[in-house]
Specification:
This protein is mostly helical. The protein is 88% helix and 0% strand.
Length: 85
Amino acid sequence: MPGLVYLLSAATSLGCGILLLRGYRRSGVSLLLWSSLFFFWSTVENVFLYVDMVILPDVDLTVWRRIPSLIGAALLLFGLVWNKS
């Protein structure tokens, strides 16, 4: 059951990323692009979470799970700062 939740979280993140990217292509607002990149990296993080908890429960992939979230947060922060100036 937890595996299903991890996969649904990944699917939701992917759906949000796709919708935000579509919105960016229509309007050209750069914050939508940075937000979509954040959600794409969140999808990668959720897939790593599924692999860590369900497929390889004996292997600790905590560091590898945190790297995509760090990249996504850094991209979103960069987009927020870049969009401000």
